[in-house]
Amino acid sequence: MAHYENMKKMDLFKRTIPYIKKEKKLVITTIILSFIVSGLMALTPFITKAIIDNYLKQGLYDKIISSLIIYGIIVFITAICRYLFQYINTLTGMHIEKRIREEAIRKIDYLPVDYYSLEPDGKIVAKITNDSAGVRTFYVTIIQIFNALLNIAIVYIGVIILEPMLALLALILVPILSLWITVYRRRVHKHFVELRETGSRITGKLNELITGALIIQDYNQEEAMLNDYKGLCKRYVHNDRVANTINIYFGWELLSLIKRIAEISLLMFLGFQTLDVSGVAISAGLIVAFSENLDKMINPVNAIFTNLNELEDSMVGATRVYMFIDEKNDTRILDGKEAPTNIKGEVEFKNIKFAYVDNKYVLNDVSLYVPAGKTIGIVGHTGSGKSSMMNLLLAYNDYQYGELLVDGVDIKEYNKASYRKNLGIVLQTPALFSGTIKSNITMEREYSDEEVIEVVKDVGAEHLLEKTELGIYMPVSFRGENLSLGEKQLISLARILLRNPKILVLDEATANIDSDTENKIKKAIDIVAKDITTFIISHRLSTIKNADEIIVLDKGVIVGKGSHDYLYQTCYAYKDMYDSQFKEMKKKR
Fold it and tell me: Half-sphere exposure (CA, 13 Å, Cβ side) for 28?
């Protein structure tokens, strides 16, 4: 995993440069506009000084009018260029965010399965949506700060041209402003950090209140949970109030005070200059021009000050999305040779050793040969390695030692994308998507309505076609919430039947459903698994009783293999599991 927790602004900017380069024309246009705006802003004080000191004194009203027209044209052009600067800068940021999001979404297809086990779904979504916006804000804010610094620099050059001594006076403001910004940021930063943290906890608590509403009501914990939520809200309000108080006293008001002090210092300087320095022309125009320049220097400082908080927030989001994009890809997603499309389905595990964490093996020297077309039942207590074994077959994880052969070829020679085209899987919790029955069965591949209707009927799900007049075009809601668990499984099995894989894995496909529905699922499985190498993981031993061979796993080791009758007589672990379930069924009856 990439580490950016302590990444500095410049390092983060370097990380963003590849995305900026792809928007080179827009970025160059933005910088050119920034120079134009800064240059035009520096011109107007000279026009003001000329009108006051020269044209008014000499009564040159025609020149006054022409100067005012030029002044108005400059202001108009400046306004247009400033608008274009803001528009193009924001547009560039949006393009960068779009590229970041596209890359983050593509990343989903390349991450190892373990990542999704460790990272909550909501957090992944937040990284792709909210945190990618942080990169846009980071870029836009950096350009805004650059623009403000450029304004200050060019206006300061104008001050030097007006009067070098006044420029020296303005230079004294730099350490004062730097010290002020540093003190301000240190005072307010911890409160903004606390605001972000508390805001995140409020969102989490709100999620708990919504998702756990039934349990909360069942245990009469409404008041307690609400008090926790109120406590977090109070903390948020307190920190928000403190941050705003600091902003009021040390923000724009203090900046205005510094500006007034600078203006008073100017008047004192000009007064002493009149007394002590002969031959120096002190004019009203010079005073007004310097005051105008002072405004144009102080306003960008305020812009920098405002953007610094935005910069801090955006860095957090940008860091998170970059960490996501820089996660290590799953191995061999597209690398390696193409797997054949006509495999037979012969599978052999040869001395397989596998660990999620170094040297803590969940599968230890597992060997198993499965002829093509056979059905294998896999049983064992929780944590025995059943799902881990199938994860290796499905190429979700890579084994450390041994070989896993399909038709005599180690699957590590194939790229995973082509290899998985030969595989099918039905999970305990079916994965359905918003759309229709047909789109969930075809997975957006090209199949005719007749082909889809045929597989629906083959798995015994005809009643789904009769639920509404829309038939296979009946809408399916998010995660298939408008369907029962049994109906979801039947759709999953129809999906497999249409795809016609050579190797099929059924991972607790009949768990959590009633006996009547279980019988329907079993019949559908028999149809789907015909002539296909099938692995059935199940805690319900009745589901795998008629398998060609049953494998018993215990602590990552195969402790028994054979038929149901053979294992019942020879394998204590299997006999114990079967007797326990039989007694449980007897009690229920």
Answer: 5
**C-alpha separations of 351 from 345, 362, 556 in Å:** 19, 13, 12
CA distance 404 to 416: 14
pLDDT tens digit string along 88-105? 999 999 999 999 999 998
CA angle 134, 138, 144 (to 5 degrees): 140
> What confidence tier does 35 reach under pLDDT thresholds 50, 70, 90?
very high
φ/ψ of residue 199, rounded to 5: -60, -40
Instruction: State the chain's mean pLDDT as an integer.
Output: 79
Q: Which residues contact 187 (CB under 8 A, 6 or more apart)?
A: 246, 250
Q: pLDDT per residue over 312-362, tens digit each?
A: 777 777 888 888 888 888 877 777 788 888 889 999 999 999 988 777 889
Taking phi over 0 as left and psi of -120 to 50 as alpha, with beta for the rest, 401 belongs to: beta
Q: What amino acid occupies position 527?
A: I
Over 106-169, what HEC string results?
A: HHHCCCCHHHHHHCCHHHHHHHHHHHHHHHHHHHHHHHHHHHHHHHHHHHHHHHHHHCHHHHHH
Where b means 16+ CB within 10 Å and e means fewer, 255-279 reads: beebbeebeeebeebbeeeeeeeee
Residue pointed to by tokens 């803590």: 360
CA–CA distance, 171 with 151 (Å, rounded to integer): 15
Closest CA to 520 of 462, 467, 452: 462
Q: Write the single-letter amino acid at 63.
A: K
Joined tokens for residue 207:
């999620």
